[in-house]
Specification:
This protein has a single domain, classed as Rhopdopsin 7-helix transmembrane proteins, CATH 1.20.1070.10. It is 74% helix and 3% strand. The protein is mostly helical. It has eleven helices and three strands. It is globular and about 65 Å long. The chain starts with 10 loop residues before the first strand and ends with a helix. The N terminus is likely disordered.
Length: 311
């Protein structure tokens, strides 16, 4: 690797995975294939929803935003990672680093808000089925989707406004990708406001999303147990199980990432891998989980495959 020194904080240095020379090609192939799988699965799920009118329902319109969000997060990570491996360079322009961090945080906030919106939709559908069509109108769905993205942009916009007002004194990012905490570590000024605001939106989003999902799903479970129709009960529980699986994967990975920074015995290499897993596993697994566990989507995918094999 070609090294150079620079006193300019316009060029930042990523910590990287410290790959041995013989592992570079394997890492490049793995990262590229992983990104291609994420692109294919999420774009295929989006295309399935777009091209099938039977899926133009509130549940699937909300679901459509999840692969969009997953593509934002995975692209922010993989495009820089693949470039880093291909060019054998850990250097990144500060503007590109800030852009990567911004989209990664949009992905994190968007994931929680979209899954929360989907839980609300299922709550209305199962607990108030007679009022569902009058509540979940096209205009109401549009307001929910607009609110999700506007809240994400507003929260993260303020976060990075607070960050960009501060001067940077060092240039080493102690991670494999850029994030608000890693950029904040480069600052040589008082970061109290940034830390308070960061904790506020993290705690606020967790309380909101976890609280909403716990409440709605408890109400759904009660409604299912009271229902005398076994087919309705089975379909409702299957749909909720799918949403909960996606939510738990996201929460568990976030929890492991936080814990990894508290375990001093854990190697920095393992800590970086755990941190990157947040942008690798959910975007890979989400479209597969929804494709396999959602009956309507599974049927449309099977029909598309049969038409391809037997035109």
């Amino acid at each position: 690797m070609v090294e150079f020194s620079s006193n300019s904080t316009d060029i930042l240095t990523l910590q990287g995975f410290d790959l041995p020379p013989q592992g570079v090609y394997a890492a490049f192939i793995f990262a590229t294939l992983n990104y291609l799988v994420i692109l294919f699965c999420n774009l295929f799920l989006m295309a399935t929803i777009i091209t099938n009118k039977s899926l133009h329902q509130p549940m699937y319109i909300l679901l459509f935003n999840l692969p969009i969000n997953d593509l934002i997060g995975s692209s922010a990570l993989f495009l820089q990672l693949i470039k880093e491996i291909l060019l054998d360079s850990r250097y990144i322009e500060a503007s590109n680093c800030i852009a990567q961090a911004f989209f990664i945080h949009i992905y994190g906030v968007g994931s929680l808000l979209i899954i929360s919106a989907m839980a609300y939709d299922r709550y209305i559908a199962i607990c108030n089925p007679l009022k569902y069509s009058t509540i979940m109108t096209n205009s109401h769905i549009a307001k929910i989707i607009a609110s999700v993205w506007l809240v994400a942009l507003l929260l993260i916009g303020v976060l990075f406004f607070l960050l960009l007002r501060l001067p940077r004194c060092t240039s080493l990012i102690s991670h494999t990708y850029c994030s608000n905490p890693s950029l904040l570590a480069l600052v040589c000024a008082d970061t109290t406001i940034n830390n308070i605001y960061g904790l506020f939106i993290t705690a606020g989003l967790q309380v909101f999303s976890v609280g909403l999902i716990l409440y709605t799903y408890l109400q759904i479970l009660l409604a299912c147990f009271k229902s005398k129709r076994s087919d309705t009960k089975s379909k409702a529980l299957q749909t909720c199980a799918t949403h909960l699986t996606v939510f738990l994967i996201l929460e568990c990975l976030g929890f492991f990432t936080i814990i990894s920074y508290r375990i001093k015995q854990l190697s920095p290499h393992s800590r970086r891998i755990i941190g990157a897993s947040n942008m690798i596993f959910p975007p890979t697994l989400n479209p597969i989980i929804y494709g396999l566990r959602t009956k309507e989507i599974r049927q449309r995918i099977n029909m598309a495959i049969r038409k391809t094999v037997n035109p």
